[in-house]
Amino acid sequence: MSEWTDAQLGRCVESLDAGVSVNAEDRPHRAGEIGVLKTSALSGYVFHPEQNKAVVQAERRLVAEPVLANSILVSRMNTPALVGESCYVGDAHEKLFLPDRIWQLKLRANVPTHVRWLSYVLQSHEYRHFVEVHATGTSGSMKNLPKSALLSLPVRYPDEPEQAKIATVLSTIDSAIEQTKAIVEKLKQVKQGLLHDLLTRGVDANGELRPSYDVAPELYQESPVGWIPKEWSIGSVGSEFEIQLGKMLDAEKNLGVYKPYLGNKAVQWGGIDIGAAQLVRMSRSDLMRFRLTKGDLLVCEGGEVGRAAMWEEELDECYYQKALHRLRPLRGYSPHLMLAFLRYWTSRDVLANYVSQTSIAHLTQEKLASVVLPVPAGDEQLAIVSKLIALDAKARSEDQRLAKLKATKMGLMDDLLTGRVRTTNLIVAGSAAGTQVDADLLLSQLCKDLYEAEELAVSEYRRELFGDKFIPELVLMREGKIRVEIRKENVSHNTPHLHIKHSDKIDASISLLDFSTLAGQIDSKTLKFFLKKLKPLKANLLAIWNELNEKENSMGAEELISNLSL
User: Fold this and answer.
1) How many CB atoms lie within 10 A of CB 402?
2) CA Rg, the chain, in Å?
3) pTM
4) Which of 161-170, 362-371, 400-409, 488-497 shows the lowest per-residue confidence on average (mean pLDDT)?
5) Domain of 446, in residue numbers
6) Number of domains in the chain
7) Does the N-terminal or the C-terminal CB of the chain have fewer CB atoms within 10 Å?
8) Contacts for 356-364 with beta carbons within 8 Å, 24 or more apart?
């Protein structure tokens, strides 16, 4: 590797230029204004230009350092974990300026340097370790990275053509990561929509999602929790589950043998964090009363009230403390379905009506028992749960894929930036005929194939869950707890329209032709607020409706929604 040069960052960086501190409003800048970046604009080695504050009129003349194209930003002062955070900026942002806590690197004209390559050097493990060692400051909450220290960072310089090839490989991986993040976000939206549908409409005898109340009101009955399928009954959490609070912790009074127990922090959406388990003395009666068995549902009594997880025997023996309720079915109600309702309720603040509020919110055993609970028949519960489990499995699979891509990137960075693996050696067989393909081109194609496969998987996954009759609800915008949706409707429901909905308080269908109210109820103030935003986008909204209902292309509709300025 004789053509590689060992030197310092200062070899290619002429200056580190910061901005100035100015007074600004705590909101992003608008048209005709300028913004100063917040330190959160540098996050995860990605530039987030929306993280800025509008500079007040009187101090606009004071700003000094605009965000340039093809540049690198570094946080010079931040928390210990974030000091030295860096990111690459591709496009210029003429209306955005640096604060005094962020540097912009200015490169030497006489030292050929590929900026994107250098940005990866400032993401490496070696760089993070260097920052941890050289950041100064006695405060435990804030550290400073001296300019002289950063410029002394050891760097191994390949020639510029190889810098460019390294940047191509790593930026291709970055593109795949961002695309996969987008897929994960889409799946989260799909999951939220499916959760709403499953818990309000259920599935029929054929395993298909029932038509919505708007389409087939004759299939529904009114209940204390809104419209539910006629086949369902209404009960309560207490009528369907035995509810038991856990063991009271008292170091002076607790006697017996030490046993592992779970507290509030161990119960998270998605599962139990065994790493948060602790030990407590348990008496013989405690061992019988508070031992967990597979399938127990644990619900947080305080903190994030209603947060819940299923105990799947992650340990052979475990117990739980008084900050948690343990739910066990009395009459065969599915704990997985109960878990789904808890997640649905917490997302809509349903449990707020049952919480005892002093200085800290608490969901007492009596209040939890009184929560109204829809009760589908046993077979339908199983059908709903099977779809929810399949949905969660898909989401976990995508999260794992994203984690694998990130690990691949870090491994490649470690190899390519140190020269242990050379891009000139990354040549692979391209075909049986023996043609050779450069690795970065192959990687680019693999990432493209991955993205296309993910897009196909999302589409197939929806059909797998609900067949061709699935009615997706695509969210256009949210304002507080109110959401605006466009849905794939039954063909008989053919007037282009959207839905404005908030639990059972607001549920209105609004025509996209003249924005009149077709059905449902909505107060005039709320309607006026949303129509002011929606009317100028009439053509866009009709295009989304046609994409979803005429072309039956939900992915295309989602793409159009992502481009809306709402």
Assistant:
1) 17
2) 28
3) 0.60
4) 488-497
5) 160-230+377-469
6) 4
7) N
8) 360/302, 361/302, 361/303, 361/305, 362/301, 362/302, 362/305, 363/299, 363/300, 363/301, 363/302, 363/305, 363/306, 363/325, 364/301
